[in-house]
Structure formats: C-alpha cells, structure tokens
Specification:
The chain is α+β, with helices and mostly antiparallel strands. 31% of the residues lie in helices and 25% in strands. The chain has a five-stranded mixed beta sheet with strand order 5-18-12-8-11, with helices on one face.
C-alpha cells in the first residue's frame, strides 16, 4: 500500500473535518482515477491531502509579517468574547487628592476616577484560498507540498486590514484607531523654524538640538496635562524620520539623535520606525503629513482588541476545487487612558 502522507512534511496529523469534507467530495475519486497519483483508494487520497492542508494551515498561522507596526508594537488583547457584536469600556481620568487628617476624622478626601463609557463595534474580516484537483495532482506527482503561498496571502490580507484599523479605524463600521479623530488623544503642536521665509515644522528642516527640544516638549506637555501621572515610554516615527535621526549627529557629543534619546530620555524604552506614519501612507495616516506617536506600551492604557484571532475553517467543496475560508474578528483600538498618548503632526 502507498504511504498516505508525504514523509517530508513535519506534520502527520490532520483536521478530521477536512478529512470528512474530502471524503464527501468528488475530488478524491478523480485523483484515484488518475493512475499517476498512485493512490490505492479515496480514503488514501483523502488522508494524504488532509495532512497536506494541516501543514499549510500551520504554516500560515506561524507566519509573521514584521512590516505591520501595530501587530508588532501595540498591545494586543483577546478579552471580548468571539460572539460579541459590541464591547463597552470606560475611558478614565484620575481625580482627587489625599490630605493630612486628625485622629477619628470623618471628612476624608475622596479619590475617584471619572469614567466615560464608550462602545466599540466588533466586526469580522474574511479572506480565503483554495486548490483545484489539478493542483493536487501536480503536488502528488512532483512529490512536493501544496503551495503555501496562497494561505500566506490570505493571512497577509487579514493582517494588513487589521493593521490599518489599528491606525485609522473604520468610520463606516464604527471602529476606532490610534489616529482616528474620535479617540480623544491630545494633539501636540510642534515648534516652527523659518527657512528662506517659509515656516516648517518637519524634522528635516530642524537641527539636532531643535529635534530634541520638540521631543522633550512632548514629554513636558503630557506631564502638564496629567499632573505627571502619565509617562509615555514608546515613540513611533515615520520611517524617513527614523532614518534621519539614526544618522543625524548631536553637536559635540559623538551621539546620533536616536542614540542620545535612547540613552538619556528618562522614560523612553523603545523608539521604532513606522512606515504607516509617513505623509504618503494613505491607508494608515489620515493627516497627509508625517506623524509622531508617543504612547505608553501597556494593555492597561490601550490595546488592539482582537476577539477572535486569525482562524481557518474546514475546507469547503466547490466542484473540482477546495476552498478554505478564513476569518478574524476585530474591535479596533480600546483606549482606556487617552492622555497616555500624544500625537504630533508635521514631523
């Protein structure tokens, strides 16, 4: 009897639902009839391709796309149930002060939090991929696995959309992103410099010292707004700005601006490049100017809420083709403490 699986594959398991769907299809009989595939019967062919699909699904689950900034640098949570249509949360502002009291005092000052309820919508993102009976014949004859690039493309499409939602949300479906107008994150006004009679706010027209002054001023502004409660620890910059400060020297120090910030900014833990913040990143930047985003990287402050992570359903039969539907459910950005972040437009 022929081996019902490819010994080169790292996995020899399979999804029982995929196996059942293959057995019920008209695909495996067609493969058995093709003698060059060398299957003993439909059971043999079904198990072989169920294992192939198991391997492909595992590969697309494991795939990581480092260019998606939100998926790599924003806190991600899965707290909302998969079946929920909405999620209600509160945005908080700490209030109150303590005071020195006398023995048996009954008029203790009251500390509290002011909370404003917000409702986030939960929406499904979908994509799919598939293989024809000819794809399966060619795979079996060549002794190679089915092309994993199709499943990776489906995963990429969903991850790309999730990443865009994390930055700009989706107004049509009431999803909020970090740069959405409705998120209540304060806007910081950058300083201006005059060059040939024209005023600029972008970093390429500023000296190293002026760039450092702008970033220090952002921290000072956040401290003033929050009475020094919020201390952001992460700075996201447009890719072009990140490259600039990686090579721009701070005079008389031997340090680049980037290195100087990393070693001397008291609260900063991470500075990274975000192509999504470039002035021409239409999919993720609504301001049409370079954006600098300062925030606290903690799920206690905000998170990208994904009630159901990328999921691949059992295959579906369509004539002489199998289709694997894929789904993810997202609620966008859940922002508990809007003052824990700052947005600066025009870097």
């Amino acid at each position: 009897m022929n081996q019902p699986y490819n010994p080169d594959l790292p996995s020899t398991g399979y999804d029982k639902a995929d196996l059942a769907a293959l057995k019920a299809s008209n695909i495996t009989p067609a493969l058995v009839a093709f003698k060059q595939c060398r299957f003993d019967d439909a059971e043999d062919a079904s198990i072989f391709f169920a294992r192939e699909l198991d391997y492909i699904k595992a590969k697309s689950y494991d795939k990581i796309y480092p260019e998606f900034t939100a998926l790599n640098h924003f806190p991600i949570t899965h707290e909302v149930p998969e079946g929920a249509e909405t999620a209600t949360y509160y945005s908080y502002e700490k209030t109150g002060m303590a005071a020195i009291i006398s023995n048996y005092a009954t008029d203790l000052p009251r500390a509290d939090v002011k909370g404003k309820p917000s409702t986030a919508q939960v929406k499904s993102l979908g994509s799919s991929y598939g293989y024809s009976v000819q794809d399966m014949r060619a795979s079996r004859m060549a002794g190679k696995s089915l092309d994993t690039r199709r499943s990776e493309a489906a995963r990429y499409a969903i991850d790309r959309t999730t990443n865009a939602i994390a930055f700009v949300g989706d107004k049509k479906h009431n999803l909020i992103g970090m740069l959405s107008e409705e998120n209540n994150i304060p806007l910081f006004t950058l300083s201006t410099v005059e060059v040939d009679g024209v005023l600029y706010t972008d970093f390429k027209h500023k000296s190293a010292s002026q760039i450092l002054d702008d970033i220090n001023a952002m921290f000072a502004y956040q401290s003033k707004l929050t009475k020094n409660v919020e201390r952001a620890d992460t700075l996201a910059l447009p890719a072009s700005v990140y490259i600039d400060i990686s090579t721009r020297q701070v005079p008389n120090t031997g340090y680049t601006v980037l290195r100087f910030l990393k070693e001397n900014a008291p609260y900063l833990k991470d500075i990274f490049s975000a192509p999504e913040l470039e002035d021409d990143a239409e999919e993720t930047n609504p301001y049409e100017k370079g954006v600098m985003l300062l925030y606290t990287n903690s799920a206690d402050k905000f998170s990208l809420e994904i009630p159901m992570a990328f999921y691949q359903y059992p295959l579906q039969n369509r004539n002489l083709e199998v289709i694997i539907p894929c789904e993810e459910r997202v609620a966008g950005i859940i922002l508990y403490y809007p003052l824990s972040a700052l947005i600066a437009v025009g870097v």
